[in-house]
Amino acid sequence: MQGRKAKIDPVTAQVIGGALENVAIEMGHKLARMSYSSIIRESEDFGAALLDAQGRQLCESVDSTPLQLGPIPGYMRGIFRVMEERGETFAPGDVVMHNSPYHGASHGPDVGFCVPVFRGEELIGFSFTTAHHLDIGSLHPGSTGIVDAVDAYAEGLQFKAVKVYDAGKKNEAVWQILRDNIRAPGMVVGDMEAQIAACRAGAERFVEIVEEFGLEGVNAASEELMDYSERMLRSRIAELPDGVYRAEGFIDGFVDSPNENEKDLKIAVTLSVEGSDIHVDFEGTAPQVDLPINMPFEGTVDVAVYLTIRSILLDSALTEYVPQNDGLTRPVRITAPKGTLTNPIFPAPTIARFCPGNIVADTVMRALSEVAPRNVSAGVGNLKVVAYSGLVGEDYWVYMDITEGSYGGRYGKDGMDAVDTLFANTRNNPVEDIESHYPLRVDRYELRDDVASGPGRWRGGLGSIRQISFLEEGRFALEGDGHRFAPWGIFGGEEGIAGDLLLNPGTDGEQHLPSKIPDRRMRAGETVRTVSPCGGGYGDPLQRDPARVLDDVLDGFVSEENARKQYGVVLSDGGVDAAATASLRERMAGERA
Amino acid sequence: MHLVGVDVGGTFTDLVLSDPEGGETYTHKIPTSGDDPSEAVIRGVYEVCRMAGIEPSEVSYLFHGTTTATNAILEHKGAEVGLLTTEGFRDIVHIGRHQRPQNYSIMQEIPWQDRALVKRRHRKVVPERLSPPRGEVLTPLDEEAVREAARELKEAGVEAVAVCFLFSYLNPAHEERAREILEEEMPGAFVTTSSSIFPQFREFERFTTAAINAFVGPKVGRYVRNLRAGLKEGGVRADVHIMRSNGGVSPSEVAAESPVTLLLSGPAAGILGGAFSGEVSGRRNLITFDVGGTSADIGIVTGKGFEEAGARDTWIAGFPVMVPMIDVSTIGAGGGSIAYVDEGGAFRVGPRSAGAVPGPACYGKGGTEPTVTDAHAVLGVLDPEHFLGGNMPLYPERAFDAVGGLAGKLGMDVREAADGILRILNNSMANATRAVTVQKGHDPRAFSLVAFGGAGPLHAVEVARILGVREIIVPAYPGINSAIGLLTTDLKYDAIATQFTLSTDPDLERLNADIERLEGDVRAQLRSDGIAQGDIEVSRGVDCRYVGQGYELRVPLPEGR
Q1: What ipTM was reported for this prediction?
Q2: Of A447, B67, B261, B476, which is least packed with CB atoms within 10 Å of its CB?
Q3: At what angle do helices A185-213 and A10-34 cross, to 10 degrees?
Q4: What is the pTM of this model?
Q5: Do B103 and A66 count as a contact with CB atoms less than 8 A apart?
Q6: Can you give the residue range of the structural domain that contains A586?
Q7: What total number of domains does chain A contain?
């Protein structure tokens, strides 16, 4: 024990912690099973959590994505703020809808639903879900690739702590306005109802736990679990040398823009460690732009910072189980100058904040790499999110496809191939699901083996190639990043490979496109190929185990020529020529010096 | 008639011989043989026959629970596997669902990437393509390309191949033709198709299931051959029937064709044993609670039989497995689970276990860390005079030392710490039990808890209290309950086909034709197993969901057209 006297015995604290987490998991199951859109039921782009009466997160569903879970306390603070301004209070039977990115929401399409939990007259906490919705009434179909929105109003409907059920009574007018102003309303409203049902189930179970252990017991256990998570993170921060660590990352921005201020945008991170505290500051980051790659400070930037620090210093594969709760935010302070990409001023648009947020996370990791070299990866490849849509009669179909990035090499391990990255962790949609529901055909879904991923002692992970054709006329829009800047190499490793986007590859009309494409019309037969980046290398490639290089050659990831050029490994007769490899590596090392 | 049940566990091979027409029941326990578990099985069968005073040739049926497939996947020691798939989709089994297994980890492993079932060099693509909704052929199968791939795989020393084409669940023709060609070109190889294992959508999960089948296939095949040969040599005439994950048995040769269905062979036998014990007590709603040294397996039995897991929810060794399985919730909590204080000051128990070596401190075999068994020893629950029937010495003073060290760190006295170990463990077990009861809509208060395995009865009362369960049943032979379960089972086959249809506008012609075909297949298999027509029972079901949702509920389908 760290000299701190817990108010509850450690055994009961563990028991209550397990029971609370079970509730959040159950909420997640319910939501996934009841929802209609593949973005929720297949891609798991949702979050579920319980909070205490002060809005502090107690537990979360493990079957969902960090970028939906992390922002929930921010949504709650936003709701508190708005309701206080209006002089409103919570009543039993309320359901509150909220998606304002200037009041804690992650971005407009991630709509939060909040059910206050009452025991009798007493407000004891909140049951909360978030989920990404297919359409929220933006200027064109879908809720991704809205890259030409000029302000928050163009992004779609904004809900600021709206009671869609008021003391148990359904607010029909709000639902009607909603239905009339979004595309694919059947699906979207069905998904929202699933969120509410999951919240209500969570609220009931929360009350049961309080009945069983008493409110005092649950509160004391919650305090202890938050303190525990805080202590764990503080002990790891304290192991780092005090100091100021800096890193820079760049986002593509809009490379086809005539405005220089809209491309090659800098994210600057200054990370200071002092004792068991970390301060992350974004001074030096590019100013905000009139395009939706600004990031809500609360809901995107803070989440990217918290989750990256947690994943590095309290890596769940290497440490004890540490509950993801409010305690993990206490040792970390975040500041960003107003009017920058990382702290925009209303009504700057933010809807396409996902990919820039990944660069924030990646740059925070880079800043920590110097002092936590065995817990970071080299540069991470960013991903792309695509909206496919079309009309059948007067009705829209909308499909949202999340592609994947890749991780850089790690100490002792190559980078993870073709995965969702850093502050998100969704799932792809099966080819067999896509083609069964939409007039689309998936032509290809494979790893990139046309290039060598970032060479290193442990090489970068491989990106993917995903190619989808329209079987009927439709529309397409895309948000992505990582075309201009390859993922960084580290400790002697080389940089990875940038991503790409092709229209109608292999035809006369083949075109390379930038990483942000506003809505465009697509003819039947037209094809989109997304190519994700490959991660950066970790450590000197000349130190890579020749057997691993041989494996990569046999598996088609590295050519024999690159084995020689990049790794100094000579192959003969299907094996490694040890003597030739040793002398080649010696010569290459000499030339380098 | 003499029935023999043999259950092979990690440490012990348990046997039971029974005469259902009123004779005596004999039980036997011998150490599991490491390299080839069939040795102990064969020896055990002879020994239990000798105990009963019968000849091996007098055994009428032999039922067997095996961990051969389970261990091959858990230890990642399987065959060199090849995969034949649709051109453009070479890496489905590597990319998976593009989701990292853990949300908050940079250094994590991804099982399908770090422990690939099929190396990329052995993943071959061929031109062919089907499309939904009916599996129409867009691109015919390029048979020459299949032949070429087969030759390359053979050359590379591949011994098992999984054939995995997109949309094969709608039309298996391409997979079947490719299988024929592979069998021609690679005689002796183990060839499997994804549509024959589990014809449902979601390609990563279906392909991975087929790849696991190929990965464990040759090993299970060898094991079954050794077992059959050894038993035959010793005069056993009865065929071996193997317990499958679905809770039924099938003849060993049939089981060896789809070994992916054997991954839960052991736990399934346990649940059936629990069900039997409940039945003889006249109870229909049961929680089966099987606790050993390192893990606890918890299952549910109701008047309708045991529960089946949703195929989406079953994972083994980090891989998704889409085959019918008994619903069992397994946690790393048992008698050997180690208690400790972590670096943040939290009091934890398991999942690390002291195992058989060094074992709990009180066994006196060199263990020094406090375990659950030590907590029992401290609290006087275990009687040193009668441990394992008085056959095993117990050293409670060593338990006091081990638990005392932990108590010091927690600022507790030794009994408080011992009590705390049990409370934490019991609550973990209760949470795992909630996963198969409350979370599936069963109220545990309406169930009896059947406690077995070495440590089950020790924890049953407390777990029952936490869950509100009112009754506990301890079987007569809790230590060999799984072997007894084997004797209570039926031959059982699952047959599945996928066809999407609206309940408001069903294609009844096609539905009836499909159902009749499936039923005919299953009946033919059972008749070839020697089962009389009158003894066959068929149950039918459809998986239903609301239009647009993605998860189904199984609804029973009455007989008739």
Answers
A1: 0.94
A2: B476
A3: 160
A4: 0.91
A5: yes
A6: 547-592
A7: 3
